[in-house]
Amino acid sequence: MRVAAIVGLGAASALVLAAWLLVHHDAGPVALPAPSGHRAAPGPESPAPENPSPPAPGRTDRPGPGASDPPLPEIPGTGVLRPGDSGHGVYELQVRLQQIPGLYDGGAIDGRYDAEVRAAVTLFQRRYGIRGDESGVYGARTRFALMLRTK
């Protein structure tokens, strides 16, 4: 079950990254192969550049360090959650908290990180000896420990 959760999170991360790359990087048009037995319609032809010069040795066409590339998107389900936050990440946290008896029994699943969610996270951290995250804050270590114990 742990492997499935890790694989699922990895697949979701890959999809988010792939979508981001498609939106933010111009790769030019992509020609899809025609189904077997069909001829592809001719597409517009663009003239080849005259005398293209290869990059100098050791150089690439990629921007160097410090170039202003847009930041990578945050992968869903990562990042720190704390009181006052809301959204899908908090919703998922609430669902996971309810899976551990005596932690968040009957707590709201509304996507709001309120005092009740904070108390449940604090109790989880104490019960399982989670160190490294602020008390009541859902950081990387608390997230990892909760994901190992829930689905």
Characteristic terms for this protein:
single chain; 151 residues; mainly alpha; Muramoyl-pentapeptide Carboxypeptidase, domain 1; 4 helices; disordered N terminus
Describe the structure in your own words.
- By secondary structure, the protein is mainly alpha-helical.
- The chain has a domain at 88-149: Orthogonal Bundle (Muramoyl-pentapeptide Carboxypeptidase, domain 1), CATH 1.10.101.
- Helices cover 38% and strands 0% of the residues.
- The protein has four helices and no strands.
- The chain has helices spanning 2-24, 88-98, 115-127, 140-149.
- The longest helix has 23 residues, at 2-24.
Summarize the structure.
The protein is an all-alpha fold.
Secondary structure layout:
Layout: H1 2-24, H2 88-98, H3 115-127, H4 140-149
Average pLDDT over all residues: 73
Q: Biggest β-sheet: count, sense, barrel?
A: none
Radius of gyration: 24 Å
Structural class: mainly alpha
The CATH class assignment of the domain at 88-149 is: Mainly Alpha
User: What low-confidence regions span 5 or more consecutive residues with pLDDT below 50?
Assistant: 3-7, 26-41
Tell me the CATH architecture of the domain at 88-149.
Orthogonal Bundle
Provide a count of the helices. Answer: 4
Please indicate the percent range of residues in DSSP E strands (runs of 2 or more).
under 5%
**Strands, total number:** 0
The CATH topology annotation of the domain at 88-149 reads as: Muramoyl-pentapeptide Carboxypeptidase, domain 1
Please give the alpha-carbon distance between the first and last residues. 8 Å
Along the chain, the helix and strand elements come as HHHH
Task: Please estimate the helix content.
Answer: 25-40%
The shape, in one word, is: globular
